[in-house]
Please model this.
Amino acid sequence: MLPAARALPPRLPRRCPPAWRCPGQRALGTGSARRSEALAGAPLDTAAKRYSPKVQQLVRDIAGLTLLEVADLNALLKETLKIPDVGVMPAAAATLLPSQAAPQEEEEVPLKKEKTHFTVRLTELKATDKVKLIKEVKNFVPGVNLVQAKKLVESLPQEIKANVSKEEAEKIKAALEAAGGTVVLE
Model:
Protein backbone atom coordinates (compact mmCIF):
# COMPACT_ATOMS: atom_id res chain seq x y z
CA MET A 1 0.00 0.00 0.00
CA LEU A 2 0.96 3.41 -0.72
CA PRO A 3 1.20 5.89 2.01
CA ALA A 4 -1.60 8.39 2.18
CA ALA A 5 -0.95 11.53 0.25
CA ARG A 6 -0.63 14.58 2.37
CA ALA A 7 -2.25 17.76 1.41
CA LEU A 8 0.31 20.34 0.47
CA PRO A 9 -0.20 24.00 1.34
CA PRO A 10 -1.06 26.23 -1.59
CA ARG A 11 1.97 27.48 -3.48
CA LEU A 12 2.92 31.07 -2.69
CA PRO A 13 4.07 33.32 -5.51
CA ARG A 14 7.81 33.33 -5.84
CA ARG A 15 9.61 36.53 -4.82
CA CYS A 16 12.61 37.55 -6.90
CA PRO A 17 15.19 40.15 -5.97
CA PRO A 18 14.53 43.48 -7.74
CA ALA A 19 17.49 43.04 -10.06
CA TRP A 20 16.02 39.82 -11.51
CA ARG A 21 13.29 39.90 -14.07
CA CYS A 22 10.72 37.39 -12.89
CA PRO A 23 7.55 36.78 -14.86
CA GLY A 24 4.46 38.28 -13.30
CA GLN A 25 6.35 40.78 -11.16
CA ARG A 26 6.37 44.46 -11.85
CA ALA A 27 9.79 46.18 -11.68
CA LEU A 28 9.89 48.69 -8.87
CA GLY A 29 12.03 51.81 -8.89
CA THR A 30 12.97 54.05 -11.73
CA GLY A 31 12.70 53.16 -15.34
CA SER A 32 15.79 52.59 -17.45
CA ALA A 33 15.63 56.13 -18.87
CA ARG A 34 15.48 57.69 -15.43
CA ARG A 35 18.23 55.43 -14.12
CA SER A 36 20.67 56.50 -16.87
CA GLU A 37 19.82 60.15 -16.22
CA ALA A 38 20.53 59.73 -12.53
CA LEU A 39 23.87 58.06 -13.21
CA ALA A 40 24.91 60.66 -15.79
CA GLY A 41 24.28 63.49 -13.34
CA ALA A 42 26.29 61.92 -10.52
CA PRO A 43 29.81 63.39 -10.28
CA LEU A 44 32.62 60.91 -10.71
CA ASP A 45 35.74 61.14 -8.57
CA THR A 46 37.99 61.10 -11.63
CA ALA A 47 36.15 63.87 -13.45
CA ALA A 48 37.55 67.38 -13.12
CA LYS A 49 35.34 69.63 -11.03
CA ARG A 50 33.69 72.45 -12.92
CA TYR A 51 33.52 75.82 -11.15
CA SER A 52 31.11 78.61 -11.88
CA PRO A 53 32.40 81.59 -13.87
CA LYS A 54 31.90 83.80 -10.80
CA VAL A 55 34.25 81.62 -8.71
CA GLN A 56 36.77 81.45 -11.55
CA GLN A 57 36.78 85.25 -11.83
CA LEU A 58 37.32 85.56 -8.05
CA VAL A 59 40.32 83.22 -8.23
CA ARG A 60 41.83 85.24 -11.10
CA ASP A 61 41.31 88.49 -9.18
CA ILE A 62 42.86 87.13 -5.96
CA ALA A 63 45.80 85.64 -7.85
CA GLY A 64 46.56 89.09 -9.25
CA LEU A 65 46.81 90.75 -5.82
CA THR A 66 50.07 91.74 -4.15
CA LEU A 67 50.98 90.38 -0.72
CA LEU A 68 49.91 93.59 1.00
CA GLU A 69 46.55 93.49 -0.76
CA VAL A 70 46.12 89.82 0.27
CA ALA A 71 46.83 90.77 3.88
CA ASP A 72 44.22 93.56 3.67
CA LEU A 73 41.74 91.13 2.08
CA ASN A 74 42.38 88.65 4.87
CA ALA A 75 41.78 91.27 7.56
CA LEU A 76 38.60 92.53 5.86
CA LEU A 77 37.20 89.00 5.46
CA LYS A 78 37.88 88.23 9.12
CA GLU A 79 36.15 91.44 10.14
CA THR A 80 33.18 90.97 7.79
CA LEU A 81 32.64 87.28 8.61
CA LYS A 82 33.42 87.81 12.32
CA ILE A 83 36.19 85.20 12.33
CA PRO A 84 38.32 85.39 15.50
CA ASP A 85 42.02 85.94 14.96
CA VAL A 86 43.67 82.70 16.13
CA GLY A 87 47.44 82.38 16.40
CA VAL A 88 49.25 79.73 14.43
CA MET A 89 50.78 78.22 17.54
CA PRO A 90 48.47 78.76 20.53
CA ALA A 91 50.96 77.03 22.87
CA ALA A 92 53.72 79.47 21.91
CA ALA A 93 51.36 82.41 22.40
CA ALA A 94 50.43 81.12 25.86
CA THR A 95 54.09 81.02 26.88
CA LEU A 96 54.60 84.60 25.71
CA LEU A 97 51.69 86.04 27.68
CA PRO A 98 53.09 85.50 31.22
CA SER A 99 56.40 87.14 30.27
CA GLN A 100 54.52 90.15 28.87
CA ALA A 101 52.40 90.40 32.04
CA ALA A 102 55.49 90.92 34.22
CA PRO A 103 57.70 93.48 32.42
CA GLN A 104 59.25 94.72 35.67
CA GLU A 105 61.30 91.52 35.95
CA GLU A 106 64.84 91.64 34.67
CA GLU A 107 65.29 90.13 31.23
CA GLU A 108 67.42 87.03 31.17
CA VAL A 109 70.47 87.01 28.97
CA PRO A 110 70.15 84.08 26.55
CA LEU A 111 72.68 81.44 27.45
CA LYS A 112 75.19 80.70 24.76
CA LYS A 113 75.16 77.03 23.88
CA GLU A 114 78.52 75.47 24.51
CA LYS A 115 79.85 73.40 21.67
CA THR A 116 80.25 69.75 22.49
CA HIS A 117 81.75 68.49 19.22
CA PHE A 118 84.68 70.00 17.39
CA THR A 119 86.61 69.67 14.16
CA VAL A 120 90.39 69.65 14.43
CA ARG A 121 92.01 71.45 11.48
CA LEU A 122 95.77 71.61 10.83
CA THR A 123 96.54 74.96 9.20
CA GLU A 124 100.34 75.41 9.20
CA LEU A 125 103.54 73.55 10.01
CA LYS A 126 107.16 74.30 10.79
CA ALA A 127 109.37 72.94 8.02
CA THR A 128 111.94 71.67 10.53
CA ASP A 129 109.34 69.53 12.37
CA LYS A 130 107.64 68.07 9.31
CA VAL A 131 108.61 64.43 10.03
CA LYS A 132 107.34 64.56 13.64
CA LEU A 133 104.09 66.12 12.45
CA ILE A 134 103.57 63.42 9.80
CA LYS A 135 103.98 60.71 12.47
CA GLU A 136 101.48 62.45 14.79
CA VAL A 137 98.94 62.85 11.98
CA LYS A 138 99.32 59.12 11.21
CA ASN A 139 98.55 58.35 14.87
CA PHE A 140 95.38 60.47 15.02
CA VAL A 141 93.82 59.81 11.61
CA PRO A 142 92.51 56.23 11.45
CA GLY A 143 93.42 54.10 8.42
CA VAL A 144 96.17 56.41 7.11
CA ASN A 145 99.67 55.17 6.30
CA LEU A 146 102.84 57.31 6.30
CA VAL A 147 102.60 58.23 2.60
CA GLN A 148 98.97 59.37 2.97
CA ALA A 149 99.84 61.28 6.16
CA LYS A 150 102.71 63.03 4.30
CA LYS A 151 100.35 64.09 1.48
CA LEU A 152 97.84 65.31 4.04
CA VAL A 153 100.46 67.42 5.86
CA GLU A 154 101.85 68.85 2.62
CA SER A 155 98.43 70.03 1.40
CA LEU A 156 97.45 72.33 4.26
CA PRO A 157 95.00 73.42 5.59
CA GLN A 158 93.46 70.01 6.22
CA GLU A 159 90.82 68.56 8.50
CA ILE A 160 92.46 66.04 10.80
CA LYS A 161 89.45 64.78 12.72
CA ALA A 162 85.79 65.83 12.72
CA ASN A 163 82.99 65.62 15.28
CA VAL A 164 85.16 64.84 18.30
CA SER A 165 84.53 65.70 21.94
CA LYS A 166 86.13 68.76 23.50
CA GLU A 167 88.61 66.69 25.56
CA GLU A 168 89.76 64.63 22.59
CA ALA A 169 90.03 67.75 20.37
CA GLU A 170 92.22 69.49 22.96
CA LYS A 171 94.38 66.36 23.29
CA ILE A 172 94.90 66.19 19.49
CA LYS A 173 95.59 69.93 19.35
CA ALA A 174 98.23 69.71 22.08
CA ALA A 175 99.98 66.75 20.43
CA LEU A 176 100.04 68.35 16.96
CA GLU A 177 101.25 71.71 18.29
CA ALA A 178 104.00 69.91 20.23
CA ALA A 179 105.05 68.26 16.94
CA GLY A 180 105.32 71.67 15.22
CA GLY A 181 101.92 72.32 13.68
CA THR A 182 99.37 75.11 14.04
CA VAL A 183 95.92 73.75 14.89
CA VAL A 184 92.48 75.36 14.89
CA LEU A 185 89.43 73.92 16.64
CA GLU A 186 86.15 74.65 14.90
Q: What stands out?
A: The chain is about 45% helix and 10% strand. The mean pLDDT is 75. Helices lie at 32-41, 53-63, 67-81, 90-101, 130-140, 146-154, 166-178.
